[in-house]
Design goal:
This protein is α/β, with parallel strands linked by helices. About 30% of the residues lie in helices and about 25% in strands. Strands 22-23-1-24 form a 4-stranded mixed beta sheet. The structure holds shikimate-3-phosphate and phosphoenolpyruvate. It is an enzyme of class 2 (transferase).
Length: about 450
C-alpha cells in the first residue's frame, strides 16, 4: 500500500444539515512548486500556508536530497536554496510516493543535470505513464532508463549541455508543460512550450515571481507560447499559499447535497484555470456566493458561502475539463443527487490519474445505486434528487485503488444517501488533504474510519 500503511475502510452516513466555517489547507500544486522553486532559487524562501500532505512532503525531501536546506519555524517553512543550476546529485532514489506532480516536475528539474537521478513511487504512481515527460527530455539530450512502457522506476542522466527545444504539449497537462519548462531552467538558450489548451498556470506565474525571464503569448485561438530563457538567476521569495480549490470541492459539494446545509469556506484560490467546478455547479443551480474577492500573492482568493441547493443535470462543456480535471469524481457525486442527466465529455486524462478515475467513479456509483454510463472518455450520470435508494445497505465497499479523490468523493456521497457508503481504504486521503476527516466531522458530517485491516 501507499506509505506502507494497511488499508483503513471508512463509512459515511446520512447526515443532518452541515453548518460552520472552515479554512481549507494550502493548494497542492502551489505547495509542490514552492518547495521546488524555493529549493532551487538562491537565498531564502519563506512559505506560509503550505499544504503538509504526504505528496508535498515527498517533494520537500527530494529537494533536500539535492542540496536544499528546509526547516520549519512556527508556521513558516524556510528554505535555503542551492541557486539555479547548482542542484547536487541525489545519493539515493527519490521516492515520490503517490504524487504524479512531484515526480514528473522533478524529472524535468533534475533530469537535465549531468548526474544520475532515480525516481520511484508507490503502486499507483508506478502504473502511471511517464513517457509524456520522458519524451521531451530525450529530445533535450537526457538518457533514460525506465521500466516497460516508460513506467517507474526511472533513472535519468542529462548531457553536458542540454538542447533547448520547442515542444507542443500533446495532451492537456500542466505537469508536462511544467516538466519541460523546469528542464529549460538548466538549459542554455530559450526553451519554448506551446500549449494548445490552457492548463493551470502556476509554474509560469511562480517562475516569473522568482525572477525567471519567462514570457507568455496567447494567439487568437487561445494557443499559448511560453518562452523561458535558461540558466538565469532565481531569487528566494515570500509565499503565502492560498487554499486548495480541489480540496474545497469536497465540503462544497457536501453542503449542496445535504438538506439544510449552510457553510462558509475561507481563503479559496480562485485562479480561473482552477474554477471550472464552481462554474459548473452554479450552472446546475448551486447556491455558491463568492465573497470578499481579493488578491493575495498575485492570485485571486475568495471566501465561499455554500447552501443546500436543488441541483439540475447539465452538459459540461468539454473545453472546461482542464480547469476542473481533478474535480470530476466529486462532480459525478453531485450529479447523482441532481434532477436529470449530467453529461461529461473529454475525460480521457482521467484514465491516467492515481487510478483510472473514469472506471473507479462509474463502478463506485453503480455499487451505490446510481444509474450511469461510462464511455471511452465520457460519463453520463442520471441523478436521484433526495438520494432515495442510494448508498449500499449491504456495506459493499467502493474500490479506491490508492486514489484519494475517489475515497473522498464517495465519503461525501454517503452524507446524503439513504444508505451508508463505504470505501475500502481512506489512508491515502493524507496525500492531499490530511485534515479532511476533522474538517468534515466538524461541520457535522457522519464519517467514521474503521480499524486498520490486517495487512
Ligand atoms: O501541475 C499540477 O500541479 C497538476 C496537474 C494536473 O495533472 P496533469 O498535468 O496530469 O493534467 C492535476 O491533475 C494534478 O493534480 C496537479
Ligand atoms: C491527479 C492528482 O495528483 P498527481 O497527478 O500529482 O498525483 C490529484 O491530486 O488529483
Amino acid at each position: 500500500m501507499s506509505h506502507g500503511l494497511s488499508p483503513r475502510p471508512a463509512t459515511a452516513r446520512k447526515s443532518s444539515d452541515l453548518k460552520g466555517t472552515i479554512r481549507i489547507p494550502g493548494d497542492k500544486s502551489i505547495s509542490h512548486r514552492s518547495f521546488m522553486f524555493g529549493g532551487l532559487a538562491a537565498g531564502e524562501t519563506r512559505i506560509t500556508g503550505l499544504l503538509e500532505g504526504e505528496d508535498v512532503i515527498n517533494t520537500g525531501k527530494a529537494m533536500q536530497a539535492m542540496g536544499a536546506k528546509i526547516r520549519k519555524e512556527g508556521d513558516t517553512w524556510i528554505i535555503d536554496g542551492v541557486g539555479n543550476g547548482a542542484l547536487l546529485a541525489p545519493e539515493a532514489p527519490l521516492d515520490f510516493g503517490n504524487a504524479g506532480t512531484g515526480c514528473r516536475l522533478t524529472m524535468g528539474l533534475a533530469g537535465v543535470y549531468d548526474f544520475d537521478s532515480t525516481f520511484v513511487g508507490d503502486a499507483s504512481l508506478t502504473k502511471r505513464p511517464m513517457g509524456r515527460v520522458l519524451n521531451p527530455l530525450r529530445e533535450m539530450g537526457v538518457q533514460v532508463k525506465s521500466a516497460e512502457g516508460d513506467r517507474l522506476p526511472v533513472t535519468l542522466r542529462g548531457p553536458k549541455t542540454p538542447n533547448p527545444i520547442t515542444y507542443r504539449v500533446p495532451m492537456a497537462s500542466a505537469q508536462v508543460k511544467s516538466a519541460v519548462l523546469l528542464a529549460g531552467l538548466n538549459t542554455p538558450g530559450i526553451t519554448t512550450v506551446i500549449e494548445p489548451v490552457m492548463t493551470r498556470d502556476h509554474t509560469e506565474k511562480m517562475l516569473q515571481g522568482f525572477g525567471a525571464n519567462l514570457t507568455v503569448e496567447t494567439d487568437v485561438e487561445g494557443v499559448r507560447t511560453i518562452r523561458l530563457q535558461g540558466r538565469g538567476q532565481l531569487t528566494g521569495q515570500v509565499i503565502d499559499v492560498p487554499g486548495d480549490p480541489s480540496s474545497t470541492a469536497f465540503p462544497l459539494v457536501s453542503a449542496l447535497i445535504v438538506p439544510g446545509s449552510d457553510i462558509t469556506i475561507l481563503n479559496v484560490l480562485m485562479n480561473p484555470t482552477r474554477t471550472g467546478l464552481i462554474l459548473t455547479l452554479q450552472e446546475m443551480g448551486a447556491d455558491i456566493e463568492v465573497r470578499n474577492v481579493r488578491l493575495a500573492g498575485g492570485e485571486d482568493v475568495a471566501d465561499l458561502r455554500v447552501r443546500y441547493s436543488e441541483l439540475k443535470g447539465v452538459t459540461v462543456p468539454e473545453e472546461r475539463a482542464p480547469s476542473m480535471i481533478d474535480e470530476y469524481p466529486v462532480l459525478a457525486v453531485a450529479a447523482a443527487f441532481a434532477e436529470g442527466a449530467t453529461v461529461m465529455n473529454g475525460l480521457e486524462e482521467l484514465r491516467v490519474k492515481e487510478s483510472d478515475r473514469l472506471s473507479a467513479v462509474a463502478n463506485g456509483l453503480k455499487l451505490n445505486g446510481v444509474d450511469c454510463d461510462e464511455g471511452e472518455a465520457s460519463l453520463v450520470v442520471r441523478g436521484r434528487p433526495g438520494g432515495k435508494g442510494l448508498g449500499n445497505p449491504l456495506g459493499g465497499e467502493v474500490k479506491t485503488h490508492l486514489d484519494h479523490r475517489i475515497a473522498m468523493s464517495f465519503l461525501i456521497m454517503g452524507l446524503a444517501s439513504e444508505h451508508p457508503v463505504t470505501v475500502d481504504d481512506s489512508t491515502m486521503i493524507a496525500t492531499s488533504f490530511p485534515e479532511f476527516m476533522d474538517l468534515m466531522t466538524g461541520l457535522g458530517a457522519r464519517i467514521e474510519q474503521a480499524e486498520t485491516k490486517a495487512a
